[in-house]
Amino acid sequence: MVVSLTRTTAIAMEGIYHCALCNGNASRKVYVGIYPVDEGLIQIYGNVAFVLDSNPNEATPQFRLCCTSTGGPATTVTWSRDSETLSEGAETVLNDATTAQYTHTLTVTGNLEGLYACSVANETSNDLARLNVTAPSPPSDVKFSQNGLKSVLVSWTSRVPAVTGYVIHYQEQNGEQNGSLTAEGSESAANITG
């Protein structure tokens, strides 16, 4: 039986959130889990590069970071990652001409590690905002144990506050039966009956 575990995440930012752990020779995937940790300041932790063991055609992960500025005359914005200026994927939209409020968005694709900063300036002042993005590692302590003739117990102990639930995907070795079941974020085990 092939089993994979997907974590669902409570977040306030856009992104792709998925991790899958499989026994046997099934593919292992790591998406990015993105959620705010501290208001204003953000850091990306861990190796969040997409892992593809079996499907090289799968989409590269992508997420968007946003910051908002208010003030005139028109502002300029610079996005950076680890002090390196990024220009591709950046967009600025005027939300309110009366207050000169802008939303600055950066779309990030591929290697997601680093400290991202949004720097906004005009003729009279400037300001800097950092976004704190974390990428929780997938549970590394997943255990499988026989629980009867046609049942497997899947258990894990890793806990991340942003995880609100798990989806366990399974498929029998002969491929005749597959399915999925859900578990709450507070749970640490699920029983699969085939």
Automatic annotation (TrEMBL):
Residues 65-134 form the Ig-like domain. Residues 138-194 form the Fibronectin type-III domain. Pfam families: fn3, I-set. PROSITE patterns: FN3, IG_LIKE. It comes from Geodia barretti (Barrett's horny sponge). This is Uncharacterized protein. The lineage of its organism: Eukaryota, Metazoa, Porifera, Demospongiae, Heteroscleromorpha. It comes from the Eukaryota.
